[in-house]
Structure formats: C-alpha cells, structure tokens
Amino acid sequence: MGLKGFHVVFISAAVLLAVGIAAWSVRLYLGTYAPVHLLTAAGAGLAAAALIAYEAWFLRKARRLP
User: pLDDT (tens digit, 9 = 90+) per residue, 24-33?
Assistant: First the structure.
C-alpha cells in the first residue's frame, strides 16, 4: 500500500472514530443530561463532517496524481 492508500485508510479510520465518539457522547448525554456530553457530540460530529469533506477533496485531487 502506497502513501496515498495509507492516507485514505487513515482518514477513514479517523471518520469512524469521530462518529463513534459522537454516538458515545449522545448516549452519555441521554443518561445524564450533562451539557458537556452534548457539546462533545456536536464537536465530534463536526469533526466527522470535516474529515469526510477532506477525504472527498483528497480523492478528487489524488486521481490526478501518479
């Protein structure tokens, strides 16, 4: 696996981690109603969305690379 492939796998893993943290934080929020858990879920959701956008941009750009 080249550097390009590793980058795609690494960013995909980061997306899955961010989604998992968001889901975990929502579950904690529903059990405690502590605002910190809701803020953590929102931050992790935003991070996942940004990583997805970055990966889409990278894949479009990577097609032109050798």
Answer: 999 999 999 9
What is the number of other CB atoms lying within 10 angstroms of the CB of residue 19? Answer: 17
Written as six digits, the tokens of 2 are: 């080249």
Evaluate if residue 21 carries a pLDDT over 80: yes
Which DSSP symbol is given to 50?
H
Name which of 3, 4, 14 is nearest 58 in CA terms: 4
SS3 track for 21-41: HHHHHHHHHHHHCCHHHHHHH
Residue 18 burial (C-beta neighbours within 10 Å; 0-12, 13-18, 19+): buried
